[in-house]
Amino acid sequence: MSTPRHLLRRSAVFALFVALASSPLACKKGADTAGPDAAGGSGDQAAGTELRYKAGPYKLRADVKFSFKATSPQGVNEAAGDLSGLLDVTDAGGKLKVGLSVTEVRDFVLGKDMLPPPKEGETPVDPKTAVQGFTGAFVADMRGELDEAGTKALPETAAAKEKKGVEAAVAGFATGVLGLPELPKVALVEGKTVETNERKDENLQGLVIPVDTASKFTLLKIDSSSGKRIAEIKYESESSGAVEQGKQMITLDVAAEGTVLFDLDDQLPVRRTSSSTTNISAGQMGFEIVNTIDTTFTRA
C-alpha cells in the first residue's frame, strides 16, 4: 500500500461493504462468549434460547433495500438498491450451502465513480442490467457464519473471480446484501443483554488490522400472536483497530446496530435491519462509509 488513497480503491470499498453488510447480527468467538455451537435447532434451553438455522434443503425469497455512502477527500460516492433474490439452501455436511441469485430488480444505482470506465470502443454496461444476471454461493455454519474454506472451494467462487468490470462491481454489492443473518452463538434470555468481546484480524485489501469488537445482544421478546414463535433480537457493536503503515497510523472504527426477527418454530429468518458507520483514517486523511440494509425473508 503506497498511499492512503489505496484505501478507497473501488475493490477495497466493495470488500469493506461486503464485510459489513454480511454481518448485521454476528456473534464471533469472543473471550467471554459461552454456550455450545450445536448443529441442532432453535429452542428454549436451560440457559436461555438458542438460535440455529434449519438444515436444508429449502428456498427463501429475500426482498432487500439497501443504501451505501462513502465520503472521502476525493468526494462522495453513493449507491442504493431495491431488489429480490433467491436463497437456495442445501445440506453441506452439517453446514449450509446457500446459492444466491437475483430474481427481480426494482432499483439499483451506483455512483459514476464507483464503476470502472468502459474500455475504448466498449459499450457501457448498465448496473441494473448487470445485477439481474448475478449468481453466487457461499457455505455457512448452522448460525449463518461464513465458512471461508468451504466457500473458497466452491466452483461458484472460482467463477466469481473471473468477473471483471461492472459485473464484478455489482457482484460485490449483491453478495453483500443477499445472504442469511448471522445468529448469536450464545443462548439468550428474554429481556436480558449478553455482552461479548473478541479480537480478530481484518484484512482490507492486503492490509491486516487487528480489531477489537464489543457486542451486545438482547432478546427483546418472543411474539406468538401469528401462531409462530417469532424472536426479536437487537444487536449493537463497536469495533476499533489500528496498524502502523510506513510512517503513518491507519485506524478503523465501526459502530453497528441491527435487529433480527427469527421464527423459532421453522428455524428461519423473518426480517433483518442493520446500519453501520465506518471511519477510516490514514495519516491526515479521513474516510467514512455508511450503509443500511432492510431485508424481509419468505419461503419460496
Give helix and strand order, one letter per element, not per position: HEEEEEHEHHHEEEEEE
E-strand count: 12
In spatial order, strands of the major sheet run 6-5-4-3-12-11-10-9-8-7
When the domains are counted, the total is: 1
Mean pLDDT: 82
Give the radius of gyration. Answer: 19 Å
Share in β-strands: over 45%
Q: Which structural class do you get from the secondary structure elements?
A: mainly beta
Helical proportion, percent range: 10-25%
Major sheet size, sense and barrel closure: 10 strands, antiparallel
Task: Provide a count of the helices.
Answer: 5
Keywords: Signal
Protein name: Lipoprotein
Signal peptide: 1-26
Topology readout:
Elements: H1 10-21, E1 43-45, E2 48-50, E3 58-72, E4 75-91, E5 96-110, H2 127-132, E6 135-140, H3 148-152, H4 155-161, H5 165-177, E7 193-204, E8 207-223, E9 230-245, E10 248-263, E11 268-282, E12 285-299
Antiparallel strand pairs: 1-2, 3-4, 3-12, 4-5, 5-6, 7-8, 8-9, 9-10, 10-11, 11-12
Helix pairs in contact: 1-5
Question: What does this 3D model show about the protein?
Answer:
This protein has 300 residues and is mainly β. It has one domain. 14% of the residues lie in helices and 50% in strands. It has five helices and twelve strands. The strands form two sheets. It has a ten-stranded antiparallel beta sheet. Strands 1-2 form a two-stranded antiparallel sheet. The protein starts with 9 loop residues before the first helix and ends with a strand. Residues 1-26 form the signal peptide. It comes from Nannocystis exedens. Keywords: Signal.
